[in-house]
């Protein structure tokens, strides 16, 4: 993890919305967060529907789903921010926050994802994200609860999400 990242939770980070606005993640303080790296042309893209269902079902209870488009895996997110937003709304009715396209691995990885990968490494301790739709579930205090593989169906996370919402 980069020496420039010296935070104990996600609330110290900013992200850029699809419209270019700077968003302080501190605005999500006290919420359970499901942070996902997404793509529009991936075999897992239909998970947008399930992410939206979870968001609509549990948003009123304190869940926020945050989508971060990424084009690092097989050029599966080639569109610009406007195209990404239009695609997600038209095809999956996405209303949860989506952010500007980022890198999740490598030298130019977004600081938020450097933090998430370090806090919840994957298989065998690897901090590398292997594919689109890797999911990070965070507690209300902004710390990482668990990392889930791309193939993990978002609906299968509902027990964990509800557990964290009840804390």
From TrEMBL:
Pfam families: GSHPx. Keywords: Oxidoreductase, Peroxidase. GO terms for molecular function: peroxidase activity. The active site is at residue 42. It comes from the Bacteria. One of its GO terms (biological process) is cellular response to oxidative stress. SUPFAM superfamilies: Thioredoxin-like. InterPro entries: Glutathione_peroxidase, Thioredoxin-like_sf. Belongs to the glutathione peroxidase family. This is Glutathione peroxidase. It comes from Herminiimonas fonticola.
């Amino acid at each position: 993890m980069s020496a420039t990242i010296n935070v104990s939770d996600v609330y110290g980070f900013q992200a850029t919305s699809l419209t270019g606005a700077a968003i302080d993640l501190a605005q999500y303080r006290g919420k359970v967060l499901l942070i996902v790296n997404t793509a529009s042309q991936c075999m897992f893209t239909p998970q947008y529907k399930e992410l939206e269902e979870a968001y609509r079902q549990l948003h009123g209870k304190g869940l926020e789903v945050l989508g971060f488009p990424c084009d690092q895996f097989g050029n599966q997110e080639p569109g610009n921010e406007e195209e990404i937003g239009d695609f997600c709304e038209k095809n999956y009715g996405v209303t949860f926050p989506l952010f500007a396209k980022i890198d999740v691995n490598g030298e130019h990885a977004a600081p938020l994802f450097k933090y998430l990968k370090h806090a919840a490494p994957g298989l065998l301790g690897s901090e590398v994200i292997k594919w689109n739709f890797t999911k990070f579930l965070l507690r209300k205090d902004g710390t990482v609860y668990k990392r889930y593989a791309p193939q993990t169906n978002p609906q299968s996370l509902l027990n964990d999400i509800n557990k964290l919402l009840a804390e």
